[in-house]
């Protein structure tokens, strides 16, 4: 199973050029997350900072209790073994055939015999659909095949965290769709934590569990896919619609008056409709992350935007709604704009038969906030992933208007009487 990556208050500059500042987010264990952002906003720099290839000036990247920003070289070497990285062009050695390219990390970093190496390489080549191409040189195959070979190589050491830097760059729409399916299927098979940097809107809308966006040197938001995909934030809507008019320009910093003039002329872009997340291919196991994510997101539902809450509830089956203490409207389906109903009082009951078994808490982590089948809100998680210790999905320093809580639900309050609005990542200074 993958591991959680906690990024807290991370800032990176090159000389006088600030790339991004105060970035905080948590990549939840085994889930697929996507990082969007206009060109040049520092997405690749962020990936390199996660693996310790670049050193941010401030903040932490905590993995299995090690802060890779400040740890020793030997600790960093150990943590790096958890990572697999798919670089944009596959980063293959041009003079080696695909088999040797994929076998390279095994021969360098393990004591496996050649017969064991062969077994692992064959297994990974099969996973990415490259059986039969072992003897080809990188220059003899298509860009899509090179990416898949790079992916097989990223997988040979069974990474717990897999980073993808623009896996769809240079691919046609059909191959992008095939590759997206491959990513979802690999996540089901490995249960590793995935982070994908992409410009492909279709990928962003259909693949991840969580989405974030870098813009103007900040992380605009990061959280469950439903938050960003229903966001009315102008930069997000412009990006998702791929429109030239809006706050994102060629130089990023676009003149406000020009933006207003463009919007007055062309009208505001609409929030595109939600698309369903890609299911796993038939015959493969379900993604374990789906169940964990439901527990996590439902336990913190009321900290999300109303539109995100509604989309999340709409995606649940009747049994799941009952399990989490919600009820489908009597009319069936979710009429446009109708608020989800508040939790109804129910006698305690076990999970319905259809539910897969709950994941066991992993080492050092208490239960992942199993939902309570009653009128009580689901218990917040404790430990590293506790929502009390998580910042909001909205950018820091910006005061957000309190969302209208659907169905008359009130925001959860902590003992201080303050509504809880936090999501991923610990707030700096908090334990
Ligand atoms: N090693 C480096 N030294 C100095 N500047 C760098 C270095 N690496 C990246 N940069 C600068 O950091 C900025 C962000 O680059 P990065 O490649 O991370 O952007 P990106 O969001 O991934 O862009 P794209 O979507 O076009 O790939 C750019 O201005 C780039 O020139």
Automatic annotation (TrEMBL):
GO terms for molecular function: ATP binding. Residues 383-401 have a biased composition (Polar residues). It comes from the Bacteria. The keyword NAD does not apply. Residues 361-382 have a biased composition (Low complexity). CDD domains: ABC_Org_Solvent_Resistant (cd03261). InterPro entries: AAA+_ATPase (IPR003593), ABC_transporter-like_ATP-bd (IPR003439), ABC_transporter-like_CS (IPR017871), P-loop_NTPase (IPR027417). The keyword Lipoprotein does not apply. Keywords: ATP-binding, Nucleotide-binding, Transport. Pfam families: ABC_tran (PF00005). Residues 337-360 have a biased composition (Pro residues). Residues 5-241 form the ABC transporter domain. PROSITE patterns: ABC_TRANSPORTER_1, ABC_TRANSPORTER_2. Residues 417-431 have a biased composition (Basic and acidic residues). Residues 274-293, 327-431 are annotated as: Disordered. Transmembrane segments: none annotated. PANTHER family: INTERMEMBRANE PHOSPHOLIPID TRANSPORT SYSTEM ATP-BINDING PROTEIN MLAF (PTHR43023:SF6), PROTEIN TRIGALACTOSYLDIACYLGLYCEROL 3, CHLOROPLASTIC (PTHR43023). This is ABC transporter ATP-binding protein. It comes from Saccharopolyspora halophila.
């Amino acid at each position: 199973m993958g591991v959680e990556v906690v990024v807290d208050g991370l800032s990176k500059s090159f000389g006088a050029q600030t790339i991004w500042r105060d970035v905080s987010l948590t990549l939840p264990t085994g889930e697929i997350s996507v990082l969007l952002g206009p060109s040049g906003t520092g997405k690749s720099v962020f990936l390199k900072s996660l693996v310790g290839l670049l050193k941010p000036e401030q903040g932490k990247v905590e993995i299995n209790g090690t802060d890779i920003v400040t740890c020793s070289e030997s600790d960093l070497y150990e943590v790096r073994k958890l990572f697999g990285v798919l670089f944009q062009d596959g980063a293959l050695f041009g003079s080696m055939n695909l088999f040797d390219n994929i076998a390279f990390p095994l021969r360098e970093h393990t004591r496996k015999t050649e017969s064991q190496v062969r077994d692992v390489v064959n297994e990974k080549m099969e996973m990415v659909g490259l059986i039969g191409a072992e003897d080809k040189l990188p220059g003899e195959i298509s860009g899509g095949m090179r990416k898949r070979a790079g992916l097989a190589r990223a997988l040979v050491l069974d990474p717990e965290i897999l980073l993808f830097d623009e896996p769809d760059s240079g691919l046609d729409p059909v191959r992008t769709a095939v590759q997206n399916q491959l990513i979802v299927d690999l996540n089901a098979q490995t249960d590793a934590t995935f982070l994908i940097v992409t410009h492909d809107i279709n990928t962003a809308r259909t693949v991840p569990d969580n989405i974030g966006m870098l813009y103007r040197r900040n992380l605009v938001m990061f959280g469950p896919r439903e938050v960003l995909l229903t966001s009315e934030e102008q930069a997000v809507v412009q990006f998702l619609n791929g429109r030239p008019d809006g706050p994102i320009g060629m130089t990023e910093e676009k003149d406000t008056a020009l933006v207003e003039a463009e919007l007055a002329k062309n009208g505001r872009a609409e929030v595109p409709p939600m698309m369903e997340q890609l299911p796993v291919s038939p015959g493969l196991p379900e993604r374990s992350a789906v169940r964990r994510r439901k527990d996590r997101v439902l336990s913190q539902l009321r900290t999300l935007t109303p539109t995100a809450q509604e989309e999340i509830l709409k995606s649940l089956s009747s049994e799941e709604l009952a399990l989490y203490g919600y009820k489908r409207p009597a009319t069936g389906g979710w009429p446009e704009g109708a608020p989800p109903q508040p939790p109804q009082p129910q006698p305690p009951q076990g999970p319905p038969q259809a539910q897969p078994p709950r994941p066991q808490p992993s080492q050092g982590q208490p239960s992942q906030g199993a939902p309570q089948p009653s009128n009580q809100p689901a218990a917040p998680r404790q430990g590293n992933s506790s929502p009390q210790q998580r910042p909001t999905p909205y950018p820091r320093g910006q005061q957000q208007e309190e969302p209208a809580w659907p169905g008359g639900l009130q925001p959860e309050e902590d003992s201080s009487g303050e509504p809880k609005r936090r999501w991923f990542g610990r707030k700096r200074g908090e334990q």
